[in-house]
Amino acid sequence: MAYYRLLGDVPPTRHTQHRTPEGGLYYEELMGEEGFSSDSSLLYHRHVPSAIVDARPWDAPDASRTPNSPLVPRHLRLHTLFAGDAWTRADAVTGRRLILGNDDVRISYVAAGRPSELYRNAVGDECVYIESGAATLETVFGALEVREGDYAVIPRATTHRWVPAPGGPLRAYAIEANSHIAPPRRYLSRYGQLLEHAPYCERDLTGPAAPLLAEGTDVDILVKHRGDGPGGITGTRYTTPHHPFDVVGWDGCLYPYTFNVADFQPITGRVHQPPPVHQVFGGHNFVICNFVPRKVDYHPLSIPVPYYHANVDSDEVMFYCGGDYEARKGSGIGQGSVSLHPGGHSHGPQPGAYERSVGVQEFDELAVMVDTFRPLGLGEGGRAAEDPGYAWTWSGRGPAR
Ligand SMILES: [Fe+2]
User: N or C terminus of the chain with fewer C-beta within 10 Å?
Assistant: First the structure.
């Protein structure tokens, strides 16, 4: 997505000689999407970017899934996954535990305290939401300082690593696509600028500020790629002869960036506004929305919590990451919870919340939602974090038999 940026040292004309101070050549690499037909950047390396000296299998985090069967709404308590000091031994790449996934998108959660190894996701773009904590996201394009409430959007095949800030845990909700992740097309001009009716603009996006150069020999990179492993995911560990952070300059429209949820300007209405007004990003067969603190419906007879709804084409995943979520009161949902409301099941406010919301002026809630257009299965982390009573909370009864 993203607009044009230029960092560091690039030659005045693309695809021409770019000389080092010693007279040698920098190595130009085009990193581009959709086979030279979409956004790209040109990176200038000190070393040949193709060079590897070893390749071995790497066991990527478990991507296996079990179907949501019998079909029920589910509540997953993510904070139970890294109990005690388990986060001090986890990193933000290999520590991820799959919560929910399908063949378009996978959602994982991690509480991390250690720096990750260098990592490259060749399956698709990642959008990592920071529930709490802070980190430096070191990338081949430069470093990004990441903080609570940030989405870090990392293009497919970007070499990077996560370095949590001291004191932490870094709590991260990782949305991994099999496609690209970008702002909704309806918010973009035909040339790609965010339009006036968009809930954020380019000024709210932060890219790397300077090239990041590192030295090293025989450096490993973990590569997640398409293959025949569980979920169609396989891992390979490359060893490169030189450190991959050797880019002295780059320019283009493809690079990692952050957007903080506090900079999302909510679109509100006289009566209830549907979830698409809360959309922030999207990928193939899924959307990402956020529900932020806001004034609510101002019709004198409005009911501010959502009407009951049957999303006949999608599974809906809410991650409750701040504030006080009015519609779910009485369900056991709290900070760090995920709800899965699958297609085929009507859902809406918990008993009493519908009536209680009449006359309310503002919601102090923060949630990140992923709607998928194909059904989601449960990952290892999702199964481990489940609260089995959630499905029955609207009726107030347990299973009939
Ligand atoms: Fe919903």
Answer: C
Q: What is the 3-state secondary structure (H, E, C) of 216-229?
A: CEEEEEEEEEECCC
CA of 378 to the centre of ligand 1 (A): 19
Q: Report the separation in Å between the CA atom of 98 and the middle of ligand 1, taken as the mean of its atom positions.
A: 22
**Enclosing H/E stretch for 392:** none
Q: Does pTM top 0.85 for this prediction?
A: yes
* pLDDT tens sequence across 34-76: 999 999 999 999 999 999 999 999 999 999 999 999 999 999 9
- Which tokens in the block code for residue 170? 């870094």
Ligand 1 mean position to 207 CA, how many Å?
Answer: 32
Domain segments of the chain: what residues? 5-76+83-260, 266-386
Same fold for the domain at 5-76+83-260 and the one at 266-386? Answer: yes
Class of domain 5-76+83-260 (CATH, top level):
mainly beta
CA–centroid distance, residue 90 to ligand 1 (Å): 32
CA 243 to centroid of ligand 1, rounded, Å: 46
Name the residue with tokens 């030295």.
215
DSSP β-ladder status, 365-372 and 315-323: antiparallel
CATH superfamily label, 266-386: Jelly Rolls (2.60.120.10)
Closest CA to 168 of 218, 225, 111, 118: 111
